[in-house]
Amino acid sequence: MNNRRLKLKKNIILVLFLFSLNLLGCTGGQKITDAMTSWVGHHQSELIAVWGPPDRTDSDGMDGKILIYEKFRILEQTKKKTHVGESGYITYTKAEKRGYTATRMFYVNSEGIIYSWHWHGL
């Protein structure tokens, strides 16, 4: 199979996989929604004690902050390839990771109480 057809086949598989994740997201998404809703009203220190420190923070624009947790989900990973051509030249293909970033954001008021949340990516 030539490289173009193989690449097309991989892309089709990736699209189908992402589509199936979207369909399954109804159940997986509800679990995430329920888990994040359970933190509303709690102090940020309780969240940090369980989830660890956030990957980054930002302002909520109202004297509070947003605690942002991110995780890269790998869907496909290729290995580094070495190829020696007929002329003796060596070519390299670097390893690649395909995936997406799952993000969980908790909005915290000036007293440190979680008042809202947002997520994307299962």
State the shape: elongated
Counting structural domains, the number is 1
Head-to-tail CA distance between termini: 33 Å
Number of strands: 6
Mean pLDDT equals 86
Can you write the helix and strand succession as a string?
Answer: HHEEEEEE
How many helices in DSSP terms?
2
Q: Helix coverage percent of residues?
A: 25-40%
Main beta-sheet annotation: 4 strands, antiparallel
Lateral arrangement of strands in the main beta sheet? 1-2-5-6
* Strand coverage percent: 35-45%
Poorly predicted runs: none
Describe the SSE topology.
Elements: H1 3-37, H2 44-51, E1 56-59, E2 65-77, E3 81-84, E4 90-93, E5 97-108, E6 114-120
Antiparallel strand pairs: 1-2, 2-5, 3-4, 5-6
Protein architecture, described:
With 122 residues, the protein is of the alpha+beta class. It has one domain (3-120). Helix content is 35%, strand content 36%. The strands form 2 sheets. A 4-stranded antiparallel beta sheet has the order 1-2-5-6, covered by helices on one side. The protein has a two-stranded antiparallel sheet with strand order 3-4.
Q: Which key phrases capture this entry?
A:
single chain, 122 residues, alpha+beta, 2 helices, 36% strand, elongated
Summed up:
With 122 residues, this protein is an alpha+beta fold. It has helices at 3-37, 44-51, and strands at 56-59, 65-77, 81-84, 90-93, 97-108, 114-120.
